[in-house]
Amino acid sequence: FTSLRDSEIENPTGESNITSSEHDHYNRIQEALTKFIAECTVEDSTQIPPKPPWKFLYSDIRAVILSGEASDRGLDYIRTILSRTFSRSGKEVLQDSIDPLYVGALGAAKCARAQVENPSMFETITYVPDDIPETP
User: Fold this and answer.
1) Which residue in 131, 61, 65, 129 sits closest to 101, CA to CA?
2) Separation between Cα atoms, residue 57 and residue 46, nearest integer Å
């Protein structure tokens, strides 16, 4: 884990100074992301445990998609953090060609289309447990 330096944080507003509080906050986010990836991934398939908790191959990470609302400045910080976190493998994982505000809606629309075009694909999915009582 390498901390972000002020000069490495892209600022959409062109501000060159960030507060020490912001700096610490974003370094903590990068540290948490790095720790999460280390806990959930392995480098070699022989390291995958035979039982839970499961781990995934680091090389299988294909994309990170941002979803939700944030300021341009906040999104820029997250992009920088992702770039730094995945730089050890040379991966360009950030997929942000879609506005993060609409990612969920696009995913829901694609899922709905798939369900309409191939209903049998969703026959085994139970959305509501059987033991929920009906409301009168």
Assistant:
1) 65
2) 10
Q: What is the structure's pLDDT at 63? A: 86
Report pLDDT for 17.
Answer: 61
Q: What global pTM score does this model have?
A: 0.62
Q: DSSP secondary structure string, 81-112?
A: HHHHHHGGGT---B--SS-GGGHHHHHHHHHH
Q: Which residues fall within 8 angstroms of residue 136, CB to CB, at 6 or more apart? A: none
CB contact at 8 A, 83 and 94? yes
**Per-residue pLDDT averaged across 93-105, rounded?**
86
Q: E strands, the chain, where?
A: 41-42, 56-57
d(Cα 16, Cα 125) in Å, to the nearest integer?
Answer: 50
pLDDT tens figures, 45-96: 888 888 878 888 888 888 888 888 888 888 888 888 888 888 767 778 888 7
Handedness of CA 80, 69, 39, 127 (dihedral sign): negative
Contact 135, 104 (CB under 8 A): no
